[in-house]
Amino acid sequence: MALVLTEEQSMLRDSARGLISDKAPVSHLRGLRDAKDPTGFSKELWQSFAEMGFAGLLVPEEFGGSGLGFVEAGVVMEEIGRTLMPSPFLATSVVAASALSRGGNAAQKSEYLPKISNGSLLATLAIDEGAKHRPLQTNLQAVRAGNGFKLSGAKALVVDGHVADLFIVAARTAGSAGEREGLTLFLVNPKARGVAVERTIMVDAHNAARIEFANVEVNADSVLGEVDQGAALLDGVLDIGRGAVASEMVGLSDEVFGRTVEYLKSRKQFGKLIGEFQALQHRAAQLYVDIEITRAATMKALQALDTDVAKAASAVAVAKARAGTTATRAVQEGVQMHGGMGMTDQFDIGFFMKRARVCEELFGDANYHTEQLARARGY
Amino acid sequence: MSESEAADLEEFRKQTRAWLEANCPPEMRKPATSDADVFWGGRNAKFSSEPQRIWFERMRDKGWTVPDWPKEYGGGGLSAAEHKVLRAEMAKMGARPPLSSFGIWMLGPALLKYGNEAQKKEHLPNIAAGLIRWCQGYSEPNAGSDLASLQTRAESDGDDFVITGQKIWTSYANYADWIFCLVRTDPAAKKHDGISFILFDMTSKGVSTKPILLISGYSPFCETFFDGVRVPKSHVVGTVNRGWDVAKYLLQHERAMISGMGERGVGRPLGQIAADSVGSDAQGKLDDSMLRSQIASFDVDEAALAACAERAVDLAKAGQAHPAFSSAMKYYGTELNKRRYEILMSAGGVDALEWESERSKQGARPRAWLRTKANSIEGGTSEVMLGIVAKRILDLPGA
Ligand SMILES: Cc1cc2nc3c(=O)[nH]c(=O)nc-3n(C[C@H](O)[C@H](O)[C@H](O)COP(=O)(O)OP(=O)(O)OC[C@H]3O[C@@H](n4cnc5c(N)ncnc54)[C@H](O)[C@@H]3O)c2cc1C
Ligand SMILES: Cc1cc2nc3c(=O)[nH]c(=O)nc-3n(C[C@H](O)[C@H](O)[C@H](O)COP(=O)(O)OP(=O)(O)OC[C@H]3O[C@@H](n4cnc5c(N)ncnc54)[C@H](O)[C@@H]3O)c2cc1C
């Protein structure tokens, strides 16, 4: 597979870019933040997304989706990264849709996937519990009770947690924190008794929530995949999420970089354009190289996911690790090279810095993924 | 790609794999660790081993010393996609390049683009067959990064140019049969406009070389002197005084080749090499956690660079490549290779410091480590590469 977009993928990019840059430039996020918008994204825009086939992009055609692959999902994520558009696309269309189509039984798929495709259902994965992403440390307890289970514990950084219609909750049905065995995914109705959702206003003004589960009862039909054997399903779904977030970070890095280079070509000091100073030129060139390398690594990971999710782990770890270090560098240089302007809220660049920080924590930061690669290589 | 093309390519992959399995001697499936492991060809070429000879001859007979050159010039005539498959299959089994040469990496591509038919017919088959070894006469004592300020003169005399001047850092000039050389044919023109790209035999009267010793203890390059060397004008590649175009095009290929060093590993993963010397704990983790994280970060960047190199080829094939992208790759690839060898030295500890012993293969590791320091200098320095990216790709002012 060539590491360049096909014609169809380029067309998809153009249509996503057209819609997103037109309807959701950075000022859209700014407006939602300033208004303390209760939803945190535009429902109207989400409907447009659904009509264009983006909401169900990964959903198989038999369930009303577009049946496209992860490279295509990455194309859309990259465009989202360029304007920081707050959107259920990541949580619902990428992560939850993948969990349901990969782990769901026939009934679960036909109940939820068509609604994801038409934009009427929002769903999200509840995974992290501590300050850092450590999936195997999952300790939310699910104990058998009658014909079903009772869930107790807490989740953090649940993307779109306060607006979701469906939670996919990683829980422990056996074993103890740190073990692979004994993880199970559950489909939980946010309105169920014992669920308490606290929307957390985050640094990046994107949606997130903390959720507490106090003896929440679910029936046996709510199990997604197999009891105790959820780790493999979870690995794949998380890797899909990681690939998507890496794409968002590539888009974000590229956008910040583009804006910064433009600034270097317009701002004058010492009687010269600051872009004439070699100290800045070389740093800009290094950043360009970093972004291109990370872009390639991310495409490689998405293609690996399209080929075989179960064999993509190392390529995904490389991509997410690179995306983290690259985006961090891009936003730091972005602020620095804009001088005092870069520090102002009125200027957009700070939004990129804040979103990059959240993307870095989502589904594991660069340190986490670098560690995963070292373990996979056995040293 | 259509389905039938994909099927053809799959068939090609199968056949290639089978052929390589049957024809690549086991000794040639290990990375080269010293210059003796590399076959450079040329009039005085000697094989350092029988497997080296067998491997070279088998590949030569298929045209696979230069797989993507046209068959009429001794190449394999492979398409870009087939070439990619061959490279991938060779990499998978760790097969060495059967022939290395400046002719393959640098002059060949330049001749294919700028050479006339007679020049192509004269030189390309000799490169493909490893019969003539080339060296590169670009740098001069006062023209390094600022290459276009070169002063070696070529004065017109009837059908000939008469060349006088000095080159420096000419790699393997003392072993090379021919040189591709930049000379000033119009001293009055602006510096980029009076340069010609010319080819001549190193045994011509008036050519002499003097080896220079490197910090690695090896002497792979020379000062090269030209004292009234007579060269027919027909040996100019491209147009007289337009040699800079040829020179720059050749540099793109040189840079792509040098950046490849960042992608090419040393046979085994660094983590395993390090485990041999520093040891591992009960869980198999390296017993030096800081070194371990350096290696892991390196591995991330190495894998990402490999993806980018693959993408660069695909972009070129799709006609979407920026011509200056090889400078970006050269910068990153060479800096990465220097990192690789810093890690190897750190992992090797005291054992990596021996300079002369059987045990250390005559100091192979420290010598290789020192040699890598030149990667970010030769073919254009890292600073010059960043300047090219800033100017040509980012279009920054005054760069
Ligand atoms: C939080 C904060 C508090 C401040 N408080 C005060 C205050 O109390 N009083 C006050 O007077 N000012 C204050 N400042 C202003 C501050 O001193 C300026 O922002 C600073 O001097 C940079 O100037 P600039 O913002 O115009 O950036 P520019 O000068 O436009 O710089 C933009 C970028 O170009 C780079 N650059 C500029 N020239 C060169 C060069 N020759 N070579 C290489 N790179 C170059 C810079 O390093 C920077 O990265 C404050 C700024 C901030 C952010
Ligand atoms: C192992 C090796 C093999 C080589 N083989 C060959 C060969 O076969 N044929 C051949 O012709 N040449 C060869 N070279 C020469 C090589 O191309 C030059 O060394 C190189 O171009 C740098 O030139 P210089 O050594 O004169 O350094 P200089 O140009 O003097 O550079 C000195 C320092 O100044 C920096 N610098 C220069 N200009 C700028 C600028 N504008 N901005 C910022 N920094 C700058 C450089 O980056 C460098 O760090 C070889 C070199 C080495 C080390």
Topology summary:
The complex is a heterodimer of chains A (379) and B (399).
Chain A: H1 7-23, H2 26-34, H3 43-51, H4 70-83, H5 89-103, H6 106-117, E1 123-126, E2 141-145, E3 148-158, E4 166-172, E5 183-188, E6 195-199, E7 209-219, E8 223-224, H7 230-264, E9 268-269, E10 272-273, H8 278-307, H9 313-337, H10 349-361, H11 366-376
Parallel strand pairs in A: 1-4
Antiparallel strand pairs in A: 2-3, 3-7, 4-5, 5-8, 6-7, 9-10
Helix pairs in contact in A: 1-4, 4-7, 5-6, 5-7, 7-8, 7-9, 7-10, 8-9, 9-10, 9-11
Chain B: H1 3-23, H2 50-62, H3 80-93, H4 102-114, H5 117-128, E1 134-137, E2 153-157, E3 160-171, E4 178-184, E5 195-201, E6 207-212, E7 221-232, E8 236-237, H6 243-263, H7 270-278, H8 289-317, H9 325-348, H10 364-372, H11 382-393
Parallel strand pairs in B: 1-4
Antiparallel strand pairs in B: 2-3, 3-7, 4-5, 5-8, 6-7
Helix pairs in contact in B: 1-3, 4-5, 4-6, 6-9, 7-9, 8-9, 9-10, 9-11
One flavin-adenine dinucleotide binds next to strand 1, strand 3 and helix 11 of chain B.
Total count of helical runs of at least 4 residues of chain B: 11
CATH architecture of the largest domain in chain B: Up-down Bundle
Largest sheet descriptor of chain B: 4 strands, mixed
Helix/strand structural class of chain A = alpha+beta
